[in-house]
Amino acid sequence: MSKEAKFALQKTLPVMLGFLFLGTSYGMYMHKLGFNFLYPLSMAAIIFAGSIEFIIGNLLVQHFQPLTVLILTLLVNSRHLFYGITMLKKYSNTGKFKPFLIYGMCDESFSLNATLEVPASLNRPYVYFYVTLFNYCSWVFGAGLGGLLGGLIRLDLQGLDFVMTALFIVLFTEQLKTVRSQKNALTGFAFAIVGLMICGQNTFLLITLLLLVAAFTINYYRKVGVSR
Known about the structure:
globular; Brnchd-chn_aa_trnsp_permease; mainly alpha; AzlC family ABC transporter permease; transmembrane
């Protein structure tokens, strides 16, 4: 295993374990809906967007409406537009890895790659690639495993999704410790709380991201104007 792979594995291991548990629960959920293991395995590998995969699984047992699925997918995953804008500079020189880095950019891979302090002795594109690959493989493997075990094991997995919420809290805390200024992070946290209280849990994330982009853009141009 290369140095880049070892470094990425060390940083990604907590996320991989979370993905393995959640992926397994997703596979078992799909089995409960009546699908064999190939469905969660294929959907995890092709769609690779955990929350929407759960939603689509439920929609597949109803009267399927492609337009509804399309709109739901765009709304649920609209945050990735902002992830992509943030990572434009970091992924600009990743060469052959760029298509997979774009395809495999989930919440957790974005959080890790956006904040990783990669040693100068390591190849950054390879580190970003391995972080994304390890997360991808753990989710797909977990989904397939859950589909296989769904008929053999009966487990109450209610509340297991909080694993990833807890992990994000840890990542956020660690980022607060390392950045020189905590202003932007705390601003985002405040906007999220206000957005949740006003808009509710279904739409607050998109609204919060749009407001943050607007606020930071105004602040940027205000600073540019002052410097001139």
